[in-house]
Structure formats: C-alpha cells, structure tokens
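Structure ticket #2291
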Amino acid sequence: MRRQTSLVLLNGLSLSRLPLAGVFVSTEDPLARAGLVVGAAVTDFLDGWIARHRHLESYWGALIDPLADRGFVMVALAAFVAEGKLTPLEFGTLVVRDVATGVGFVAARFLPSFRPVKFQARMLGKVVTTLQLGALMSVLVAPKLVRPLVAAVGVTALAAVADYTLAVWRKRVRPDQASPIKRTTV
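Resolution: structure written out below.
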C-alpha cells in the first residue's frame, strides 16, 4: 500500500473517534456507551501502533490523533456532567491536562523565544489518557471508582503538564542561539 494511502487511512482511523463522540451523546444506554469508549480506545491504540511499526508517523497524524482523543473524551465527559453523573469539579480535574497543554502549545508556537513545537506523545500523557478512559468506563460500570480515578487523573495530569512544560522549555531558543551570526571577541 502506498504511503499516502496508508496515512489517509490512519488519519481516518483517528478521526473516527469524532463520530463516536456524536453517537456517545445520542445514546444513554450504558452498554452501548461502554462499547463506544472501548472503540475509541482501540482506534487510539491501533492508529499509533500501526504508525510506529510501519514507520508512518506524520506531522498531520501527530496533530489529528491527540485532537481526536481530546474531542472524544471532552464530549463524553461533558455529557456526563450534563446528565449529573460527574460534577463540574470532576470534569475540570479530568480535563486540566488537556486545557493546560493546549494553552502551552499555543503559547510555545507564538512566543519568539520558543522553537516551533513538534507534536509528540509523551508517556505521562498516554497514562493520563488511559486513566481518563478508565474514568469514563467507571461512570458507566463502576461508579464507586469514579472519585479514585479522578484523583489519579488529577495527580498524573499535573505531572504530565510539568513534563510537557519541561520538554518545551528545554527546546527554547537560548540567547546565545538567537542569532545565526557567530559572535567573535575582539
């Protein structure tokens, strides 16, 4: 299969999480919703695994995948808040990493002291996403686990934000690197 066709299919797999989010909102059946969460998790795993093992990583794939993840998770969590199954505080805790990294990404792109940011998944971010999906499932099948999972997401999210921040900070343009002109001493 040609590389371009493969990339289109992988990006389509990532983007499939957005219609899944729409279906999630349109049904209240816990079993159907659990299936949608599993479907979103499987597509997230598959697109990343295939991209890495077939050397099909791309700029657009690295952008689309986390946006599709965030889209699905945010829509599902917002639905639970609207239905009274999660509190606004729990919602905020579950999405703090997503909001903070989004703000940080925009800031890093537009502040002149930072180099353009390369989209790259980090291990703590993957852990937060896994815990978020676990929290979604717990709302559906094990409500007593919601609070412990929300707390785990909160702690891990803070660590992930610190990790992302340090990664961007390390790639900033330092004053001695700001000019391509070599300075010589007289």
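Closing remark: The domain at 3-174 is CATH 1.20.120.1760 (Four Helix Bundle (Hemerythrin (Met), subunit A)).
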